[in-house]
Design a protein that fits this description.
Elements (H helix, E strand, L loop, with lengths): L1 H30 L9 H21 L17 H5 L11 H4 L6
Length: about 100
Amino acid sequence: MAVHKMCVVLGLVALAHAAYSAAQHRTYLRLTEQEFTMLPPDIFLQCALGLLITCYGVVNVAGNFKEIKASAEQDNKTWEMLANRQGFNIFHHRGKALFQRRTA
């Protein structure tokens, strides 16, 4: 688990350094009055590797994933339990008054 957290930290540091390097490169191009076409390959590679390392660490730190199946949570329940809809049981209604047994 600690290895994966270190991957997240290392990846975020690499991304921050790539962003800082890209900003410095843009500043250098403005000072020398050159046109910006693309980032140097080393900055681009650092950004891509930082992103991959961060993604790897985040996915492994998150823990076990649940299944995407909609019925995965209901697999261990019986049909009687699934058919029981407690929200629709109403015990206080006027049918009690309409269908009372009348004693004479």
